[in-house]
Amino acid sequence: MRNKPIANVNADLLKERKNCSFDIEELTNLIDGGKNQTARRREIENMLLKNMPFDIIPEECLSAKEKYENAVRKSVALNKIGVELVSQVTKAKELSDLTLTLRRVSDAYFREVTPFLLHLGMFIPTILGQCSDEQVAHWLPLAMQLKIIGTYAQTELGHGTFIRGLETTATYDERTEEFVLNSPTLSSSKWWAGGLGKTANHCIVVAQLYTKGECYGTHPFIVQIRDMDTHMPLKGLKVGEIGPRLGFQTADNGFLVFDNFRIPRDSLMMKHAKVLKDGTYVKIARHSKLTYGTMIFVRVLLVSEMAFNLSKAVTIAVRYSAVRRQSELKPNEPEPQVLDYLTQQHKLFISISTVYAFQFTSNWLMKTYHTVQANMKHGNTDALPELHALSSCLKAICTSDCSAAIEQCRFACGGHGYMISSNLPSLYAFTTATRTYEGDYTVLLLQTARFLVKTWEQVELGNAVTPMVAYLARHQNREAWDESPEGIIRAFEAIAAGVYQTESVRSVSFGQSDAIKDVMKQLSDLYLLYWSLERTGDLLTTLKSTLGSYDGRVYERLMEEALKSPLNQEPVNESFHNEPEPQVMDFVSQQHKLFIGIASYYSYSMTALWLWDILTKVTSELGVGKTDRLPESHGRAVFMSVFNSEMEKSVSSLSAPLQAVLRQLVELYLYYWTLEKRGDLLLVLQSTLGSYDGRVYERLMEEALKNPPNKEPVNESFHKYLKPFIQGKL
Ligand SMILES: CCCCCCC/C=C/C(=O)SCCNC(=O)CCNC(=O)[C@H](O)C(C)(C)COP(=O)(O)OP(=O)(O)OC[C@H]1O[C@@H](n2cnc3c(N)ncnc32)[C@H](O)[C@@H]1OP(=O)(O)O
Ligand SMILES: Cc1cc2nc3c(=O)[nH]c(=O)nc-3n(C[C@H](O)[C@H](O)[C@H](O)COP(=O)(O)OP(=O)(O)OC[C@H]3O[C@@H](n4cnc5c(N)ncnc54)[C@H](O)[C@@H]3O)c2cc1C
């Protein structure tokens, strides 16, 4: 069934849509993979959208804690339906279509991300990719039915990129047939795992495996971290939320610290390596990097994620550009739609074509991934290095290009694009993180470079190379290729473009009308029309954007959203009437002035006494009249050290409370001047990473511990939503 026409659609948008030269339903089918798939997708989408609770207050107006609780409430409703749908599916293809539809609806349903993202995106794939058959049979049903909630904790405070440098240890104890997990240093604290802070009760932990006194490198373990009934963290673990971040606010990214935490032997995920009861290590994998498999899978997935996110951003920007009128070009004529400006089209059309490039390449990459996986099942890992190189560079390029393109879309929407309600800031915050996680941009490009250099060596030796890199051997292409990073990117962009071209031509080469074939060549138009017509229902709930709604009622929606803000629920905020007048003494800035004054007074008097004693010595050393040349920093250091030591001497006979106060003054004085004059950048930069003393990990952990979600061991949403859901009582 096609979408029903919507009343009150903006006239400019209607006019643009009337220019469509082909059957949009045909294109929708093409993109979905066939008529039946379109129908099934719409059926699921409609069912989900009808049954899920919506936000009462806009998500962006909630506090961090409320945002999280709201995300749990919505996730549980979505998961309930999802689990039921998944249980009805029998074929692998149906399951993958369904998973994709659920992921897309979930994307539309949350302004940010669900706390279950890692459960679906990495926990389940790691069970599939890293567990023995026996382990899969045990863990997979529990995870699929959400009887357990998991995440993936690889990154630590000290290491993310360099996996071999991870410090968490898993030491096998053959007496008890257990592994003992430890975080030997602060920098070994697990950091970042999504859903770990408050939601997950299980976690995949990547740790250095020790048995019989030898280290066998990093291995994945599946670990229960919270009590299944009370949700309290288990003894031997410190777990919490890492604190506010640019995006991912509702993903409760967490930290995890182990103190002699014991787990059974079969917690080791044993597809690629085993530890026998007596502690003997047995390697099964044919390739040493197979434990990195989940990362490859997610990198592949991210290409289509980027296509989808950019498609949303550019749809918002294009629709808004059709509705928005600005500037008087000719006197007494209507202001033009901003879409008609060539410069505006430049911003938008590049993004549109990029979406298609990503999507077609992603389809191809996913197929390649499955082919390589199938070969590996039969023990053939030959294609793995190339898959790693390809997924690395395509992930790096598409995440980077996508965030840049979303910024362009935001620019294309002018001031209103900066509103959270336009959804462009959230889309940007989400996609810019993807450039870093699952392998940093530069690092992944370097991995690809490593592969290319090795291939180049083979080419130079006259050896055969795979078709994907065969262009390296073709003389005429050497001009496009040089050893600079830009050269490598160019070469791989050419490959991506090649794939894109071949795939798009292949996709439209049969069954399609001439009109569609023509339009496929005009990617920009295609993209606009596809997204305009493909969606079911009110596109606002899918795009979650005031600017990009299907009906183009941009100003109405901006005003409606503004009126929903809690600050607008009362004409005059109570702080206007009720806030008691503070004593000026209560202002921190005032205390700052006063206390520093007091501390300085003590400092000067102590130093004056000391200075008198050594004046003769100082002047004889520096020469009379030259003392004014003492650098300020030296003088400052003198004041500090003298104040400190002299105060200590003179306070020893005083009462304890007075001693305490005077010592505080010393500390204050030292602290103040350290920050003020000695250039402690923490104060200036307000940054845990940029502090003068370099105590980065200490500061990150200190800040995380101050984080309000960590003030309660179990969030109330566990009792309200998660527990009834896990126990099937919801
Ligand atoms: C929609 C779903 C959303 C899910 C949300 C996800 C949220 C975020 C989650 C996360 O971020 S999880 C953590 C992800 N972490 C990373 O991605 C870390 C990045 N680092 C790495 O991948 C690796 O450490 C490295 C950079 C590839 C380096 O690894 P290593 O030091 O062990 O290798 P090298 O010495 O550089 O290379 C040796 C050799 O191995 C090959 N190789 C490396 N990785 C792989 C692989 N994955 N598969 C196959 N082969 C690999 C590499 O090319 C070298 O080969 P040779 O040149 O020696 O032949
Ligand atoms: C939103 C978000 C969610 C995340 N979720 C998870 C999660 O669920 N589970 C999990 O385990 N992790 C997660 N992570 C962590 C993420 O995987 C890492 O942050 C990422 O892999 C980058 O590693 P890093 O932080 O160590 O960066 P670093 O490696 O410290 O990078 C810092 C800089 O150093 C450069 N650099 C590093 N190594 C090299 C090199 N060899 N050559 C040249 N330059 C180099 C990088 O290019 C970068 O510019 C998440 C991160 C974010 C931002």
Automatic annotation (TrEMBL):
It is found in: Peroxisome. Pfam families: ACOX, ACOX_C_alpha1, Acyl-CoA_ox_N. Residues 23-149 form the Acyl-coenzyme A oxidase N-terminal domain. Pathway: Lipid metabolism; peroxisomal fatty acid beta-oxidation. FAD binds at T155, G194. Residues 292-453 form the Acyl-CoA oxidase C-alpha1 domain. One of its GO terms (cellular component) is peroxisome. One of its GO terms (biological process) is lipid homeostasis. Its cofactor is FAD. It comes from the Eukaryota. The active site is at E438. Signal peptide: none annotated. Keywords: FAD, Fatty acid metabolism, Flavoprotein, Lipid metabolism, Oxidoreductase, Peroxisome. One of its GO terms (molecular function) is fatty acid binding. The keyword GTP-binding does not apply. Residues 542-579, 684-727 form the Acyl-CoA oxidase C-terminal domain. Belongs to the acyl-CoA oxidase family. This is Acyl-coenzyme A oxidase. It comes from Diatraea saccharalis (sugarcane borer).
